[in-house]
């Protein structure tokens, strides 16, 4: 996870095999749910033989299954991610505040963190409506096309932000998505001045996102709270006028307990 406070660790103290095994796990996704050893090796930057040994180890320990050619993950993998949610303090703390926001506004609220080049949604408070929009807990999306991503990136150390932009793939999700790095710099500068992020149809047509960063005592972003709303329900700037005060109040209260 991208974190300004992450310590630098002497590589002599690291277990390289563990890192390679985790890279193998990360090869599986919605786009690639089943992989051969050769495909895994290419994605994890390993030889086919090494990739096969890691995959067979995952099978042995109950984290994967195989038909002899293809490999796929088993539900036991969820224990790894669930361990973070169960042990992490922030997702539990934000729950009542986001639930209150949803009850007051009728809109979905999310808490998310920045994980390298993606935003990961850790908690979602559904709106009282039958149809609730937004990202479910566990969802990942490229940070450049979400309000939460903009909110957190705007408050990174400038050197960190520059490095992030230089290595990021600005893929297009809709016609509105910012894919030009210079335009992205300008958009983030606006977020820094305003203190909040508003994105219009960057990820999904017809939907806008509004987000505020949650900062620690040193001013580093530890997460973001956000809401996604339908443009048709909030013509003009009414979404900003009606929802921002509630989001700002929620963030202000939450900052007292971070």
| Shape designation | globular
Task: Profile the largest sheet.
Answer: 6 strands, antiparallel
Assigned CATH architecture of the largest domain: 2-Layer Sandwich
Q: What is the alpha-carbon Rg in Å?
A: 20 Å
- The beta-strand count equals 8
Please state the structural category: alpha+beta
Distance between the termini: 18 Å
Q: Could you name the CATH homologous superfamily of the largest domain?
A: GAF domain
Query: Could you list the spans in which at least 5 consecutive residues all have pLDDT below 50?
Result: 1-5
Please report which band the strand proportion falls in: under 5%, 5-15%, 15-25%, 25-35%, 35-45% or over 45%.
15-25%
In CATH terms, what is the fold-level topology of the largest domain?
A: Beta-Lactamase
Number of helices: 9
CATH class label of the largest domain: Alpha Beta
Number of domains: 2
Mean pLDDT: 90
Helix content: 40-55%
Biggest sheet strand line-up = 5-4-3-8-7-6
Overview of this protein structure:
With 258 residues, this protein is an alpha+beta fold. The chain has two domains: 66 residues, Winged helix-like DNA-binding domain superfamily/Winged helix DNA-binding domain (Arc Repressor Mutant, subunit A, Orthogonal Bundle); 168 residues, 2-Layer Sandwich (Beta-Lactamase), CATH 3.30.450.40. It has nine helices and eight strands. The strands form two sheets. The protein has a six-stranded antiparallel β-sheet with strand order 5-4-3-8-7-6, sandwiched between helices. It has a two-stranded antiparallel sheet with strand order 1-2. A hairpin with a 5-residue loop joins strand 7 and strand 8. Helix 5 packs antiparallel against helix 9. The relative contact order is 0.11. The N terminus is likely disordered.
